[in-house]
Amino acid sequence: MSSSNKIAYHARSISLPTRSNPLAAAVETQLCKLRSSDLTSSISNNLVGLTDLYECVEDFLSTEDEKCLDAVLDRSVMLLDVCATIKDVLSMMKQTAQDLQSSIRRRSNEFDAYMISRKKVCKIIQKCLSDLQKNTNKNNDAVADILTEVEATTLAVFESVLSFLSAPKQRSLVSKLTNKSATQQVVNEVTKVDVALKSKVIEAKEVQKALAALEMSLQDLEDGLESVFRCLIKNRFSLLNILNQ
User: Fold this and answer.
1) Across-strand partners of 6?
2) How many domains does the chain have?
3) What is the value of pTM for the model shown?
4) Quick one: how far is CA 196 from the chain centroid?
5) Residue 174 falls within a domain, yes or no?
6) How far apart are CA 11 and CA 4, in angstroms?
7) Which PANTHER family match (predicted)?
């Protein structure tokens, strides 16, 4: 997986001022790392970076005013919902890949069943991407603060995961933002399986090889998203505790 695309922000471009607060500085450092990272060459690393970011946010929350935290609390449910949806997509894809592997070993080669499942998954992905676009658009006129940046970064990383998982014929939001057509997108582990199954002559061994690589990638993403999901839950509980004091 390689690309020159950087994490794209849908929120208004913000140049955060240097802050004397060391807790804010720690958050900004993590934001800068994620902002400069490559979208598709290290999605798993971006998820690790997102986990590190929220660990810094935990300490920073106590320095923000109640009005700001109320707004963040309202949006935290949306972030959890998006993360949960992506986790479900990964689980579905992983199960489908394992089922196809089993069918190849049994020599029943249930290729059509895999492609039918892929179409269902892609519909879910497209709806989620559309919902992300709507959610990020709401932030265009938001107050330019550090927590707005955290949310924008989180959504950008989530979008990169969804774009990676989408079908090769689909044009991701990342491609739209960088004016790249679908045919210019890098062929990743997901598309390699799709391409192998759409060949005129399907080679079972080639499909198995592609599936093995896909399962490894899905497992890495699944592990990373689980860590992010736990951080988001912890973040929401922290917000509730602060606001209820």
Assistant:
1) 38
2) 1
3) 0.80
4) 25
5) no
6) 21
7) DUF241 DOMAIN PROTEIN (PTHR33070:SF129), OS06G0725500 PROTEIN (PTHR33070)
